[in-house]
Amino acid sequence: MSASRRELLRWQFDLTWALFEYHLERLRPEDFLWEPGPLCWTVRQADDGSWVPDWADTEPDPVPVPTIAWVSWHIGWWWSVAADHLHGRPPRERTAVTWPGDGESTVAWLRDLRTDWLAALDALDDDTALDAAAPFPSPNDPQYTVARMIGWVNAELMKNVAEIGQLRLLLRTQQEH
User: Fold this and answer.
1) What is the rounded CA–CA span in Å between residue 12 and residue 6?
2) 1, pLDDT greater than 50
3) CA-CA distance, 111 to 113, in Å (whole number)?
4) How far apart are CA 144 and CA 123, in angstroms?
5) Which residues of 89-119 are buried (b: 16+ CB within 10 A; e: fewer)?
6) Poorest-confidence range of 39-43, 94-98, 127-131, 137-141?
7) Is 103 helix (H, G, I), strand (E, B) or coil?
8) Which end of the chain has fewer CB atoms < 10 Å from its terminal CB, N or C?
9) Rounded to 5 degrees, what angle do the CA atoms 152, 155, 158 make?
10) What is the average per-residue pLDDT within 123-138?
């Protein structure tokens, strides 16, 4: 018997999350703001105590290397917006999504996003809901379905997990030598 599309998307997400947990469990608080090079995107504490990510509306050339803090904020931003769409909530603006401010809070935030996302996924019915048009991340494209949005989330998460893992491994290598 073949798996449904929803089961396949859920399996792919669960696999990616398991890879993410491998790194989340090994991150140290000081890892998040480590800058791997001179041209870096990170999050910076504002006067009000909130954390503001570096950002440009047009991707710079060369592209800055992100910190783990920036990548974790980035995950929180796009994933919050994707979940808002999937739940039928008004989507948040990028500037409304802030980095929690430390490693422990960030890991808890990402795990809470996972819980929220899984609740939305588990509420979908395979035939009707997956084939509905999705307004994110490609608005105004009627061929872009909820199933494709979920696949995009899986791919984007996998890419960001790999980035965090690579940054963590580079940091450890530098610390040991």
Assistant:
1) 10
2) no
3) 5
4) 20
5) eebeeeeebbbbbebeebbebbeebbebbee
6) 137-141
7) helix
8) N
9) 145
10) 80
